[in-house]
Amino acid sequence: MARGDKIAKGGAAKRLLEDPLLTEAFGAVERDIVNALAATPLDGAEQSKRALELVHDLQANRRYQSKLHEYVRGGVLEARSQDEKASRPKAVRDPRWS
Predict the structure, then answer these.
(1) What is the torsional sign of CA 40, 43, 44, 49?
(2) What's this model's pTM, rounded to 2 decimal places?
(3) Which terminal CB of the chain, N or C, has fewer other CB atoms within 10 Å?
(4) Are 71 and 9 in contact (CB under 8 A)?
(5) Eight-class DSSP state of 39
(6) What one-character DSSP code corresponds to residue 95?
(7) Spatial CA neighbour of 11 closest among 86, 78, 81
(8) How do residues 38-64 score in pLDDT, each as one tens digit?
(9) What is the pLDDT of residue 69?
(10) Does residue 9 contact residue 72 with C-beta atoms inside 8 Å?
(11) The dihedral of CA 31, 24, 73, 12: what is its sign?
């Protein structure tokens, strides 16, 4: 991935994480899963299987959010790296050594 792409991806991820609708959707999905899990009896193999599926759904919802945060951090770090490189003094070559 090109360095500029990391910065752009980080910016896009940040906008998504700050979007009220997406934030609400992540929260609603998590609440729905937790409520379904709490209402699932664990007195049989089928119910236990359903509970495990719900746990996997919850983990996936959290992984989506985590991945977006990871993209944001990657973009911030890449931008910082580019800023540091740009602010370093350029080495001056002595023509006698070329």
Answers:
(1) positive
(2) 0.78
(3) C
(4) yes
(5) T
(6) G
(7) 78
(8) 999 989 999 999 999 999 999 999 999
(9) 98
(10) no
(11) positive
